[in-house]
Hints:
Distance between the termini: 54 Å
Low-confidence stretches: 1-19, 33-64, 69-150
Number of strands: 26
Shape: globular
Amino acid sequence: MLKSAYNLEFFGIRRAVTERALEDRLIERLRDFILELGCGFCFIGRQHRLTLGRKEYFIDLLFYHRFLKALVAFELKVGPFEPEYAGKMDFYLNLLNDKERGPDDQPSIGVILCAEKDDIEVEYALRTKANPIGVATYELQPRLTARKEGDPMNIGVPKESCPDEERVALVPSAAAQLIKSGHKVLVEAGAGRSAGYPDRDYGAAGALIVTQRKDLFERADFLFMVRGPGATPDCSMDDLRWMRPGQGLIAFLNPLMSHDAARALAATGVTALALELIPRISRAQSMDALSSMASLAGYKGVLLAANSLPKIFPLMMTAAGSLMPAKVFVIGAGVTGLQACATAKRMGALVSAYDIRPAVKEQVQSVGAQFVEFALPVTEAEDRRGYARAQSDEFYRRQREEMGKILADSDVVMATAGVPGKKAPVLITEDMVKGMPPRSVIVDLMADLGGNCALTEPGRTVVKYGVTLIGPTNLPSSVAYHASQMLARNITALFDHITDMDGRLSLHMKEEITVNTLLCRDGEIVNERVRELLDSS
């Protein structure tokens, strides 16, 4: 790989990618293909051509090493031959006899792979005649019969039914990529209009506009939605009547809190993946819709505060004297809080932030904010998914005492502290609000989960004790154009991850992203985390 960026056509999808992104994508798709079929392949020379899915790709030796390590991390048995490379590998090598290579063959590296769950052993092949330019081609030769290509998958994009939802799950540019991959995209008439994507743009991208909602659900093999049926109390569950066994769904489903809706969805027999459950690992970053939307909420929340505060954010030196910058205090340093810090800092405010997780101190400082530390004993502040853990009532009492001193000297408070699957902890009491400066502002970004402030009224802006309390719900929907772009990329990345080379649904139940994200299948809730919550409720 000699260039820093490429126009890659991979399984019918053309996109501009960086070298590292190209390698990551090849690793992911090769791994999926191996799990699906079991296959071996061979690389020859310093720059190699790999034939995969009737396409040829050039890769280098460094990528080969990274790929082998990725396979080992995925618990696949790997055994390369070529003894001279043994010293470069930091994991167990099962070397083959060097006499397997003929005297006229080029030096080569090959692999034998075995998928443990099916005990599939795959033979290797080696080119016996060198290509004049030193590049050899080796087509994947599975031992098992490959899945036959069927009809293209119909992907349905219905118009969102929740009253305050302006976003759409798929934008025209993403629809065009899916169509180029061989799928058919069905879009309900008007689905993207509120987000700034008219029907004509979808039509120009090759999508079919469907006027009847029932018709779309009946024709779709897979559904892309922003919020699924019953995900929130104001979301209708009427769409469940049109869903059928085997149909796929990707959406925000809120299964950690909307238990009845999760049970009802599972009863339809659909294969549903909840965007909230995507694990926070590097391989899943392109699919992490929760973080995408949280970032937008943090940005827009600061704009709401700036619009309500009777002060300007930056330091301003004028002929009439100097105007001091506003003081912004951010509670919670997750994705939402960090974006709030960064936005307020760019607007010129003095920004400080607090989080019970000491590990986020460097992240807060990296966006230009000061990290506030309280002398409080914290045990297990962070869970294995990277989210904050709920603490004891005594901890929260002492935390409020310390925090009250900060609030008394703040112009703006951005409340972003939440625990996944639970109501937001109340961190700002009525007495703390009374002690804040007149005309100061609290933006409670946890309003839809009950709020971090005891006086928050979800969906409303009120004034209490001279303090403006803003309780926005579904803030990402207020910037629906870009929110839909980000969400479409997250959803298509997840969809690409769970489909095979022919575009058919292919769920690997030993793979971390799939296991964590899959909510229900074949009439049952299969997600272990959700099942534990349902059993205890």
